[in-house]
Design goal:
Structural class: alpha/beta
Number of helices: 11
Strand order of the largest sheet: 3-4-5-8-9-10-11
Helix content: 25-40%
Number of domains: 1
Largest sheet: 7 strands, parallel
CATH architecture: Alpha-Beta Barrel
CATH class: Alpha Beta
Number of strands: 11
Strand content: 15-25%
Radius of gyration: 18 Å
Oligomer: single chain
Shape: globular
CATH topology: TIM Barrel
Order of helices and strands: HEEEHEHEEEHEHEHEHEHHHH
């Protein structure tokens, strides 16, 4: 590892501002994988999960993404146990819109009643009086999208949510939601290996909306000759190069790589200081995952 990557701090990734109100470092932490198998139940190593969360904050991570469905409830409870009372600059984003009948099972429910109960539950588990960023986890095929967004707008007006955001949406969804309440971030699946939502990234950049790629490492698909060659040149690993590519893809990009390992957390944060040359970025942009 070269000297550049020996200094670990999420602050080296630069910053992005959410809704003109909250400025965070552009390498966050996704807290889905600190739960049990199938995103169900408690983690196998409870103390290890707490250690990862605490180490992330020590290393300058001040944006943590979670959801009531992770566990369910477990991820939010662990975040509060590890970090409450929270540092003043820490932004916690959570989500609602799913119910969980069992491991690896997800059932839509973005009804007004469910979302209100979900927000109250998240406030309690996270030990907060107001949630900084609350995201509609996914549009519900049987509940009108505008009704779900209007519910979050009402909760914002009641002071239970500071900022409203979306996840797993199209540009049309964003435009419709923006007519109801300001949208500060969009979280869609996106990575070096999966660029289906390129047009949404570009739209978010135009509108000053943060784009949060979930699955930012493509579930371990950060492989290939181009990545490996560039990684070797930087004395880094392919996953760090994949994250560095995301950070250079757009100034509104806010990757949230998740892990249950302190070692992997530190490796991921090594990407914050990795700068690809214009030619390297161009080479990688031309590769299709």
């Amino acid at each position: 590892m070269n000297a550049q990557l020996q200094t670990l701090s999420a602050s080296l990734s630069g910053t992005v501002t959410l809704g003109g109100e909250l400025t965070v470092n552009r390498l966050g932490f996704g807290a889905m994988r600190i739960t049990g198998d199938g995103i169900w139940g408690p983690p196998e190593d409870h103390n290890g999960a707490l250690a990862v969360l605490r180490r992330a904050v020590e290393l300058g991570v001040n944006f943590i993404d979670t959801a009531d469905s992770y566990g369910p409830d477990v991820s939010e409870e662990l975040i509060a146990e590890a970090l409450s009372p929270y540092p003043k600059d820490l932004v916690i984003a959570t989500k609602g819109g799913w119910t969980r009948p069992g491991p690896n099972q997800w059932v839509h429910d973005a009804s007004p009643d469910h979302l209100r109960k979900a927000v109250e539950g998240s406030l309690k588990r996270l030990r907060l009086e107001r949630i900084d960023v609350y995201q509609l986890h996914v549009p519900d095929p049987v509940i009108p999208f505008d009704v779900s967004v209007e519910t979050l707008a009402q909760l914002k007006a009641q002071g239970k949510i500071r900022l409203v955001a979306l996840s797993n949406v199209t540009r049309e969804h964003i435009e419709r939601a923006q007519k109801i309440v300001p949208i500060v971030s969009v979280q869609n699946r996106y990575s070096f290996a999966d660029r289906e939502w390129d047009s949404v990234v570009d739209y978010c950049q135009q509108k000053g909306i943060a784009f949060i790629p979930w699955f930012p490492l493509g579930a371990g698909r950060a492989e290939g000759a181009a990545l490996s060659k560039i990684a070797k040149a930087h004395q880094a690993n392919p996953f760090q190069v994949a994250l560095a590519w995301l950070l250079q893809r757009s100034p509104v990009m806010l990757p949230i790589p998740g892990t249950s390992s302190v070692k992997h957390l530190e490796e991921n944060l090594g990407a914050a200081s990795l700068r690809l040359t214009a030619e390297e970025f161009k080479q990688l942009a031309a590769v299709k995952g």
